[in-house]
Amino acid sequence: MLAILTSMSQNTGEFPLVKIILFIYFIPTIIALFRVYILRFKFFSVLLINLFFGWTIYGWWLAFAKAFSSRSVIYLKNKPGTILVSDKYDQLNKLNKLHSSGVINDEEFEAEKQKILNH
Question: CA 20 to CA 9: how far, in whole Å?
Fold first, then answer.
């Protein structure tokens, strides 16, 4: 028993290697923890992918990509054929700015305006 305790207390140099390997293994989870502080479900999804599939190269890269994915992109589904009223006016406003700055001429302005209004 004493021999086991003394052998466990000796530093053989393998323990730091295990720490380094574990750190590299959980890099995607660490990145997700610091990057996505609001979206906790994303952190947990990265953690679960990293924990269970990180031993495969594809699982580790999937967790890494998910950790770096942007949280600012939000996709809203809209029924085809319907245009929001504010979008139409925003487009016309941008088109008017292009026309007034001289980027597009009168014919291009009228053609694009008709496309926006008819769409």
Answer: 20
